[in-house]
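TICKET: design request
STATUS: open
ATTACHED STRUCTURE:
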């Protein structure tokens, strides 16, 4: 793992961006309405919101889905994830909700059970994507095993060297070079 920085200026910038974005605020409000304190927004919903802000893109971020992650070692049934997604769809069907228990995802990928979300996120492909934020933004609760510098600097690099090819495929699949031409790739 890269050495994460705990520099408060990066944390301040992250929450300044997220709190100013109306669409992100709406997503947080919807998620908070479920009153499940273990759910975090992660992946593209955080990454694209930040990239739009740092690159001055005024249109709302484009999300394939809204990634919501949590850890529950006691209940790893996909049915629970689907139930949460259905609850979210009842609140707003404007988004494609994708809820994943990271304990189940560890099993799916043949990994040992993740003891926490930080360990789960450390297995995600890019460092700038491996970030989760609690929807109660005033708590300033986030998890970033690789720190916030890459995300806030527009840097795309694999979380592990073995993921380089997978990352290159995702860059092409998600069309990042067209959507975010100022990104730096490593």
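STATUS: resolved
RESOLUTION: sequence designed for all positions
ATTACHED SEQUENCE:
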């Amino acid at each position: 793992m890269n050495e994460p920085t705990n520099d408060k200026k990066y944390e301040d910038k992250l929450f300044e961006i997220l709190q100013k974005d109306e669409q992100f605020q709406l997503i947080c409000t919807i998620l908070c309405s479920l009153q499940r304190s273990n759910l975090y927004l992660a992946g593209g919903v955080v990454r694209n919101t930040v990239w739009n802000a740092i690159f001055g893109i005024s249109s709302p971020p484009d999300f394939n889905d809204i990634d919501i992650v949590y850890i529950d070692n006691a209940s790893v049934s996909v049915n629970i994830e689907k139930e949460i997604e259905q609850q979210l769809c009842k609140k707003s069907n404007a988004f494609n909700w994708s809820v994943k228990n990271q304990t189940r995802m560890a099993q799916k990928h043949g990994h040992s059970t993740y003891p926490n979300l930080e360990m789960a996120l450390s297995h995600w492909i890019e460092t700038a994507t491996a970030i989760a934020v609690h929807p109660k933004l005033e708590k300033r609760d986030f998890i970033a095993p690789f720190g916030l510098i890459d995300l806030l600097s527009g840097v795309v690099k694999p979380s592990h060297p073995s993921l380089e090819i997978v990352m290159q495929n995702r860059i092409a699949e998600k069309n990042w070079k067209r959507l975010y031409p100022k990104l730096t790739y490593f």
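CLOSING REMARK: The chain has one domain: 8-185. Residues 86 and 167 are 30 Å apart (CA to CA).
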